[in-house]
Design brief:
7 strands; CRAL-TRIO_dom_sf; alpha/beta; phosphatidylinositol transfer activity; about 300 residues; CRAL/TRIO_N_dom; five-stranded mixed sheet
Amino acid sequence: MFRRWSNSLHDDQENDELKHEAKINELKAALGQLSGRSLKYCTDECLKRYLDARNGNVGKSKKMLEETLKWRSTYKPGEIHWKEVAVEGETGKVFRANFHDRHGRTVLILRPGLQNTTSNDNQIRHLVYLMENAILNLPEGQEQMAWLIDFTGWSLSTNVPIKSARETINILQNHYPERLAVAFLYSPPRIFEAFWKIVKYFLDSKTFQKVKFVYPMNKESVELMRSYFDVDNLPTEFGGKATLKYDHDEFSRMMIEDDEKTATFWGSSDKHKHGSSNGYSGAEVVAEPTSLAPPAS
């Protein structure tokens, strides 16, 4: 009986894989011919993320992906250089952690209480740059990142405007689908609840389910977070044992090195123009249009 159940489970897994592959090929055919940056961006893994975000609906996934390609061609997230947003990072309000979660995901640490600038547009560019960098540093086979948000020092005076929060959420949901695995909001002050009541309506159901509130006195929420992170890696600010240290000069050197890696990835020959990040925009690497759809058999 166990063998029959095991074989049945294996068959179900194979069927699911075949269905996923068929959906990806269907989306490829729907997209038609792509070239250059668009072709580079639209890997099978990318198409799967867009399909997952739209519950396997090829038409909706196609529309979403085409809107992303249009956004990337105008916003040019992969062409943001560290030197353009470095001022935003001086206090360490957002940075890539030096550890991963238990699943090998890149971790971004956000400390909104350390807000140091007034340009909402550049604040968003800074976050977009760091999301691109987080993706660049994902281990092979991993597609998602995790966020840890520390509310120490947060107040309404350091809070982002509702309009900027909505724009940030739209970018994350619409142009980085299925990139966020989980976001832990650690010990937010009670006054944050009023802001959250407004912001949560901008979140789609999938993103909303990924947001977890953690309170030190709530054992269940603490254990949930620790199921994602090794307590020895987790900074004390998040109830762990590690020391959280942000050195802006050192982090800047890392980002500049990563800009060079990105340029190499895209085949850019101009090292002075630090390129983009993993799987996104950059040099036009394919001259002729190429169809994503497999040849007809």
